[in-house]
Write a structure and sequence with these properties.
Number of helices: 2
Shape: rod-shaped
CATH architecture of the largest domain: Sandwich
Structural class: mainly beta
Number of strands: 24
Radius of gyration: 43 Å
Number of domains: 4
Helix content: under 10%
CATH topology of the largest domain: Immunoglobulin-like
Length: 311
């Protein structure tokens, strides 16, 4: 019954206002229903509480009506004290870094407006830069090679980005120069290299991101000897010497051996008991392979006629 009386009184008030307008009377007084208590705003909160450029700001208002009426709110946003928008959400295109944001909220219970609530100002903060991707090169990688970090970042305000680098071996930080390139000391096959990259825009540091690991690969053996150009008593002898950077055991072989050829698979000593009827130029391919399957080869050119003449 009380609600019906209030609504009836509200309709009478509206009718009186309309009559005054038709008769040419103007009133600047706020019209309220007799006996109704206007609602009031208790608090206003921004989400996010610390706004950044490029993201919307939403306001949340909490209020109270003494009669328990439902309360709705009207919003007016201000950027640097200038009115710019009138919905609950402030679009990101209406402000930028450094701007001061505030909002005015007016509550209404369906019968009358409450007192305007003015929020305090918040400043739009700088957005730290972000890492988009990190790539380590070269791939595959071998000990002794220089590693380079290729970093892509982004900054919401368009600031230039600098990067700091922390190189790690098997998860342990290395005390190297703060550079995008690094030569890792004492690397062994199977070691894993990563780099932690932090972006900076001149105002704030962004979130550090660690790269995927780059695994040190097996290195191929190297043949260090050169074949002689002479033989004795019809036998050509060549002790093949090779080195493996990883210290692997080596295995020696001949590709398509001819009659009389022999190569010690362990020591690398090559013999060719050249048949008397053999003449001309022959190309011999000697190979050395490590325990991981990496291989090196050497092509030996033998002019049998020349060797016979010079022996």
């Amino acid at each position: 019954m009380k609600r019906k009386i209030k609504r009836f009184a509200y309709l009478i008030a509206v009718a009186l206002i309309g009559t005054a307008a038709l008769s040419g009377c103007q009133s600047t007084e706020k019209k309220t229903v007799s006996g109704n208590q206007s609602p009031r705003v208790l608090s206003v909160n921004f989400f996010p509480p610390t706004p950044h450029q490029g993201e919307s700001i939403v306001v949340s208002a909490s209020g109270k009506d003494e009669e328990g009426d439902a309360v709705v709110y009207r919003y007016t946003w201000f950027v640097n004290k200038k009115s710019v928008h009138e919905t609950r959400e402030l679009p990101p295109n209406l402000f930028k870094r450094g701007d001061r944001i505030s909002v005015e909220v007016i509550p209404n219970d369906g019968l009358s407006d409450g007192i305007v609530f003015k929020s305090s100002e918040v400043r739009v903060q700088n957005t730290p830069p972000e890492i988009v991707s990190i790539q380590l090169l070269p791939q595959p990688f071998q000990p002794g090679e220089t590693i380079k970090a290729i970093v892509t970042g982004k900054d919401r305000e368009g600031d230039s980005i600098d990067y700091s680098y922390e190189w790690k071996k098997n998860g342990v930080p290395l005390f190297l120069e703060n550079r995008a390139e690094a030569k890792i000391p004492d690397l062994q096959r199977g070691d894993q290299i990563t780099v932690m990259v932090t972006p900076h825009d001149g105002r704030n540091a962004g979130k550090p991101i660690e790269s995927l690991h780059l695994k040190s690969e097996n290195r191929r053996p190297v043949i260090t000897s050169n074949p002689p150009h002479q033989f004795k008593h019809g036998v050509y002898s060549y002790p093949v010497q090779a080195f493996d950077p990883d210290g692997d055991a080596l295995h020696y072989t001949i590709e398509d051996p001819q009659i009389g050829m022999h190569l010690d698979t362990i020591t690398g000593l090559f013999h060719w008991d050249i048949p008397k009827h053999t003449s001309g130029v022959h190309h011999i391919i000697l190979r050395v392979q490590d325990s991981e399957g990496e291989m090196a080869a050497q092509k030996v050119r033998l002019d049998v006629d020349f060797l016979r003449k010079s022996s």
